[in-house]
Each structure stands twice: as C-alpha cells, then as structure tokens.
Design brief:
With 182 residues, the chain is mainly alpha-helical. It is 77% helix and 0% strand. The longest helix is centred in the middle third of the chain and has 18 residues, at 76-93. The chain starts with a helix and ends with a helix.
C-alpha cells in the first residue's frame, strides 16, 4: 500500500523486501532491495542484498554488496559479515589473501564492537592459523581482563596455556588453531 501511494519512497521497498524474505520469496525480495537502492535508500538494502547473497552461497556477490554498503556507513555487523564472507572464500579457493582480508575485517568489527568476546576467540584462532601467536595471546588476555569470569575465560585460558606450552617446547603447532575452533 505504501509503495502504491509513494512509489519513490525507497525505505518502503526495503521493508517490503524484508517481508518477502520472511515469506521465503527471495527473488522478489531481491528486486525490492534493488529498487530501494535505486531510489536512494542505499545502505540497508545493500546490506540486505549481501545477506541474501550469503544465504544463496554467492559469496562474491555478498562481498560486492557489503563492500558498497560499508563504504557509505561503516558498520561492525557488516565488517563481521565481510570477515565471514572472506573466510568462506578462503575455504572455497584456498587463497591466503582471503584469509588476510577476513582477519582485517574481523579486526575492524572487533574494534567497533568494543571487544566482543566471541570475536576475540575467533580472531585468536585465525591469528594462530597465520602464525601471529603474540597477537592471539594479546587478544585473549584482553578478552579475559575485560570481563573476568566471562564464559570465554576457560577456552581462552586453554588456548593461552597451549600457546605458552608449545612456545616453551620450542615449536608452535597447528593444534593451537584447532583448539580455537578454526
């Protein structure tokens, strides 16, 4: 009804698209998001298009939409999604550049989120994968110190202990990254 009465109101197209996604009508939703973006309501429809592309395992398209949207409005949740997109692409193509990009965007999300604990664990695991053990130790220690007694304290301490143990033995192994769930 709103679109009929105000056909140039981009936000209405975005909201209609969101309702269509909830009904499982993804192709129709995509058309509404694209129309919303065309009418000037850029960021939210671009982010929604990125989420929709991720649902369809089209990570290259998700990357495009998220990157366009985050240029307009930097957003921690979207940086986090971009990190996830690049991790998926790294898994698919075995390209270390995607892993580097994943870390870059997850670090941005971490800084913007004010130190999300789950993200700290994820980053620690990724740091271990790329042999950045001091960074892994620092982020885990920061997460523990930031919220003592938190639910991540036990797994964070376990990873820290493993890194320290392996360093003491003179060699870091991939097992640290595996412990961090990577």
């Amino acid at each position: 009804d709103t679109i009929k009465k105000s056909p140039k109101f981009g936000k209405a197209y975005n909201e209609y698209g969101a309702a269509l996604v909830m009904k499982g009508e993804n192709e129709s939703a995509k058309r509404q998001f694209l129309k919303a973006a065309e009418l000037g309501d850029k960021t939210t429809p671009l982010f929604n298009l990125g989420y929709l592309a991720m649902r369809n395992n089209d990570f290259e398209l998700a990357e495009k939409y998220f990157t366009e949207g985050v240029k307009i409005i930097p957003d921690a949740a979207v940086y986090r999604k971009l990190g996830s997109v690049y991790l998926e692409m790294n898994g698919r193509y075995r390209d270390k550049d995607y892993l580097s990009k994943a870390i870059e965007y997850l670090e941005k999300a971490y800084r913007m989120d004010g130190g999300d604990e789950i993200l700290a664990l994820k980053l620690a695991g990724l740091y271990c994968r790329v042999n950045r053990y001091e960074d892994a130790k620092a982020i885990l220690q920061n997460a523990i110190n930031g919220k003592p007694g938190s639910y991540i304290e036990k797994p964070a301490r376990k990873i820290l202990d493993k890194i320290n143990e392996l360093e003491a033995k003179g060699g870091i192994k991939e097992s640290v990254a595996q412990m961090a769930g990577q």
